[in-house]
Design brief:
Strand order of the largest sheet: 1-2-4
Strand content: 25-35%
Oligomer: single chain
Order of helices and strands: EHEEEE
Number of strands: 5
Number of domains: 1
Length: about 120
């Protein structure tokens, strides 16, 4: 993955209330290369170790503790404007003639070191 530029505007006050309000995300020149190998493993799936939840008694006040996860509401995450410019996604599977998003079968493989250009 490579990206030329990204701009992100986040409101700070809602963060104190455990809410995320993003006015703008602008992405320019994003290239994503999705690959599936011979064994079926893909480069876009990330697994993390499962975490066992801590079970703690909440205080009798009826208010959640400061360590408890926030309650999700319709305004927990707000994104006002998303702009994507010059975006490309390529998907590669082994032993295919012309993978989706890649050059034709007769064109050099742009992912191999031999086909990369060093000129600007």
């Amino acid at each position: 993955m490579k990206m030329d530029a990204v701009r992100l505007q986040v409101k700070l006050l809602p963060l104190l209330l455990r809410k995320i309000q993003i006015d703008e995300i602008r992405v320019k020149g994003l290239s994503v290369y999705l690959v599936k190998d011979e064994k079926g493993a893909v480069n876009w799936m990330f697994q993390r170790e499962p975490v066992e939840p801590k079970i703690e008694a909440e205080p009798e006040t009826g208010e959640p503790s400061k360590d408890s996860p926030p309650e999700l509401t319709s305004d927990s995450f707000v994104l006002t404007d998303l702009a994507l410019e010059d975006i490309s996604v390529s998907y590669r599977v082994p032993k295919t003639q012309n993978p989706c998003g890649s050059p034709s079968a007769h064109a050099p493989d742009r992912w191999s070191p031999a086909s990369r250009s060093t000129s600007p």
